[in-house]
Specification:
about 160 residues, alpha/beta, 2 domains, four-stranded parallel beta sheet, 4 strands
Amino acid sequence: MKLTRNRFREISVLGIAAAVLSLLASFDRTVAAEPIKIGFSMALTGAYAGNGKAALLATQIWAEDQNTKGGLLGRQVQLVYYDDQSNPSLVPGIYTKLFDIDKVDIVISGYGTNIIGPAMPLVMQHSKVFMSLAGLGSTSNFATTSISRFSRSGPTLM
């Protein structure tokens, strides 16, 4: 049987398609094997430690529950967190480490407005979604078109 030019093209296209599909399938397995890293600071010591420890426990329970159900988007959840000692001046360094060293996929806030505010410039710089915990008015100093408040967690301050 003689291999014609058209037949050669068909076989080549099918071979390339099979190789691409094979690569995509292995890529999906590789990505799915890596956990989703959720990073945050939390007050585990200092003035807000009581609330911070309760928030950490709730977050850990949620992560364990998600992981027993197969993870988030098919990937296990890994929490990466550091004690901010209820000290706002430590927060920028913590979020810098979360972004640049730990390479977290998602960030959530620590407890309280004065802890959330110092993280906001870094979150904005990295174009991440930032879910916050008990931060009344924490975005009021960052009024840009890229920042939106989706829901309030307290009364509107007038």
